Amino acid sequence: MNSSVKIPEVSFLKFLKHAQNILKNPLPFHAKNFENLGNIFRLNIGFGKSVLFCRNAGLLQHALQKNQKNYTKSYIQTKDLAKYVGKGLLTSEGKHWQKQRKLIQPAFHKSQLNLLLETIHKTIELELQNITIDKPSDIFPVFNDLAFQTVVKSIFNIEISLEDVNALQHTTEATQQNLVQELRQPFLVWWFNLSGKTQKFLDLTQQSRTILKRLVNNRKQSHKRHDDLLDMLLDARYDDGSSMNEDQLVDEILILFAAGHETTSNALTFCVELLARNQNAQQKIADEIEKVKKESNDLMYLLKNCTYTKQVIEETMRLYPPAYFIDRVNIEEDEFEGMILPKGSNLLFSVYEIHRHKDFWTNPNEFVPERFSKENAIKHTNHYYPFGAGPRMCIGNNFAMYEMIMAITSLVEKYSIVDKKAPIQINPLITLKPFEAVLEFKRRIK
Q1: Are strands 49-54 and 346-350 parallel, antiparallel or unpaired?
Q2: Residue 237: CB atoms within 10 Å
Q3: How are beta strands 137-138 and 438-439 bridged, if at all?
Q4: How far apart are CA 281 and CA 371, in angstroms?
């Protein structure tokens, strides 16, 4: 193939010069490069390696959907993340991924999730009692615990101690922090390995695996059913009639912990941060809840009819997408809009930049939930990727939306979020996390 389109490059020296700032927050560095170089640029990261950073929504759609068979996940997930959470759906590829996706998909059908709604709702109601009233406090720890407890109770229902929950939550969060350092300082990976730092976190992960194996064996020996995700995973059968072995089951559970709570807790925190700064939207949610609950107290009815609340959550994930980067590697050479992508190119798509691109969104930095009304949402299909797209779209997207709608409606029904004007702060790690989300809540007067 011949092409006259050259992809601009950022040198390793420039990368090294900004290394400390990138470690803290890489988004300004990338934003400046996008502004100066266009929608795609090559970042040289040393040792002959480079990454293509991209905010071209058409190329993302090409990689995730139109030519998805030629693209695989990068070593960031299949190797770096996998060493901590195993070869589950998020980190596996090829035939193994296809086999696991086909096996697990039924557990996340809406009909199956209906069985979990009451458990999710009770967990949310209990965790929201930890909100501090009439005094400013950081809301993120409340939502972090809420989201983790929701995942735990959805998998294990009531068969897990507080000690085990705390150990699993600590491992999930500590290994993420370590992985961020490894990824943003690739030139120091040799030191992490030599010093034993990496091994320390691998040992921590092994402790979590031991806890999960004990919990799984306890369930099997109890011969009791709870209609939770663990029951569904234990019931799942491959085409030959066999079930998952113990190690594979633990891998999938670790993935649910890692992916299932982190993204949700981030999105919920950003959502209430936005509601604090948009009092009209907060009132519209309160009015919607009152109207819907007069019609029915059924949880599924609430989920289907709190449409404005859903729009607020969708707009939150546009402005602050928890999965703010999507990585892919092309298996064979590819061409897109005149650009040659050599075999094995590492592409890192900035969902954060795509979601705020002026070519796709009117007033892209403003909070406008109505963008996602029924009549408007169709306009944004090709440049809105909070859960990815294509065959690898997040398997838990319905679970996450159900949980977030229930959490926001339960919170706004009980509390008013006091007006706040200061800018929202972010902490980009493996996911896009909030930073110092200090808010004040008051009991809602009806």
Answers
A1: parallel
A2: 10
A3: antiparallel
A4: 13
Residue 439 confidence (pLDDT) above 80:
yes
Q: What is the pLDDT of residues 345-371, one digit of tens each?
A: 999 999 999 999 999 999 999 999 999
Band (37; pLDDT cuts 50, 70, 90): very high
pLDDT on residue 176 = 77
Domain locations in the chain? 9-443
Q: Please state, in angstroms and rounded to a whole number, the distance separating the CA atoms of residues 31 and 19.
A: 15
Query: What whole-number distance in Å separates Cα of residue 389 and Cα of residue 351?
Result: 12
Give the model's confidence band at 47: pLDDT under 50 very low, under 70 low, under 90 confident, else very high.
confident
* Nearest residue to 308 via CA among 356, 364, 376, 244: 376
In this predicted structure, what is the pLDDT of residue 1?
Answer: 42
Structure tokens given for 235 = 């019931």
Q: Write down the mean pLDDT value for the chain.
A: 91
Rounded to 10°, the helix 397-414/307-319 angle is 110
CA distance 444 to 416: 5
Q: Is 441 exposed, middle or buried (0-12, 13-18, 19+ CB in 10 A)?
A: buried
- The three state secondary structure string of the chain is CCCCCCCCEECHHHHHHCHHHHHHCCHHHHHHHHHHHCCEEEEEEECCEEEEEECCHHHHHHHHHHCHHHEECCHHHHHHHHHHHCCCCCCCCHHHHHHHHHHHHHHHCHHHHHHHHHHHHHHHHHHHHHCCECCCEECHHHHHHHHHHHHHHHHHCCCCCHHHHHHHHHHHHHHHHHHHHHHHCHHHHHHHHHHCHHHHHHHHHHHHHHHHHHHHHHHHHHCCCCCCHHHHHHHCCCCCCCCCCHHHHHHHHHHHHHHHHHHHHHHHHHHHHHHHCCHHHHHHHHHHHHHHHHHCCCHHHHHHHCHHHHHHHHHHHHHCCCCCEEEEEECCCEEECCEEECCCCEEEEEHHHHCCCCCCCCCCCCCCHHHHCCCCHHHHHHHCCECECHHHCCCCHHHHHHHHHHHHHHHHHHEEECCCCCCCCEEECCCEEECCCEECEEECCC
Of 444, 439, 443, nearest to 275 by C-alpha is 439
Overall CATH class of domain 9-443: mainly alpha
User: Any residues with CB less than 8 A from the CB of 269 and at least 6 apart, and which?
Assistant: 139, 140, 143, 434, 437
What integer pLDDT is reported at residue 347 of this predicted model?
96
Interatomic CA distance for residues 406 and 310, integer angstroms: 10
